[in-house]
Automatic annotation (TrEMBL):
InterPro entries per the UniProt record, alphabetical: ICDH/IPMDH, IsoCit/isopropylmalate_DH_CS, IsoPropMal-DH-like_dom
Cofactor: Mg(2+); Mn(2+)
Name of the protein in its database record: 3-isopropylmalate dehydrogenase
Organism: Roseobacter ponti
Manganese in keyword set: yes
GO process terms (BP): L-leucine biosynthetic process
Family: Belongs to the isocitrate and isopropylmalate dehydrogenases family. LeuB type 1 subfamily.
Domain Isopropylmalate dehydrogenase-like, first and last residues per copy: 6-355
One Pfam family hit: Iso_dh
Amino acid sequence: MKDSFEIAVFNGDGIGPEITRPTVDILTRLAKAGGYGLRFKDVPAGAAHYAQTGESLPEASMAAARAADAILLSAMGLPSVRYPDGTEISPQIDLRKALTLFAGVRPVRIFPGQKTPLNLPEGKEVDFVLIRESTEGLFHTQGRGEVSENEARETLLITRDISEKLFRFAFGLARERKDAGRGPGRVTCVDKANVFRAFAFFRALFDAEAANHPDLASDHAYVDATALWFVLKPWDFDVLVTENMFGDILSDLGAGLMGGLGVAPSADIGADHAVFQPCHGSAPDIAGQGRANPMAMILSAAMMLDWLGLRHDNRSLVADGTRLREAVEAVIRRGEVLTSDLGGTAGTEEAASAVLQELGL
């Protein structure tokens, strides 16, 4: 059993450093109390770094990410800083491709007492996971699309190799959730197979993998219908798996169901590496004001502990991942210490301190 881990920390842009500091503090205290080691290594990247140096993701930073046991990445990018072609600085996407982080994991959970724009029927709970393929799809030609005077083209790519890995991951997660009592053990393939041959190919690969898991259920849904059902009956879902662009859009819709991006964590996971980051952006309009909501970053850190613990058979990390998630949920449920995006007046440090208090640290 491994009990000491190196974490590469990308502090990010805008509010990124403000939500990273308290998150690392919480993780440090949990590790000390839990008897395991977390060593944090700050590595530069992002839009501000690009503006200063001309590099958005230095080679040394990529090397540090490869060498780390896990990567904790804060909000990245600034609208005012772009590449010469007009696209935004997105080191997180570069990391996904370079490290083959094919599974973008986006939990959607509405717990009792959490504010949501939905009118949930009594007794209905929302607890599902959207898995977004994160290395190809419509993002394949990012920054390399063809643009002429009269037309523009981007290429969607779906490969057998990545799709098979993605679907094995999805069914594995469904089994883990079923064993933990958090889902019925069902995977839904979200596509547009009725229109595009690429998605018919995607669906056929999904069905082939589903046949390897007779103890789990599987079904299909078109992406437009899925968006509708996210609003009308989100409690019906367990694990959903989809293409990169579809997942990008649906994950924001899922965050909206939870009350906003401020409480939406995520992970991008591959065979050997994983990045954990909040779904929201760098919010430069409030940077430096101490108002940013740290909860999505803290919840992403909880996902990191869980992943490290399962990967290295360390039950203390798994338990602390659950404790940290439940502590955040308890603070939000109580409603006494909320940041402005959730209807409160608390600042970043106050919200993080409430989580620490809930943990008893």
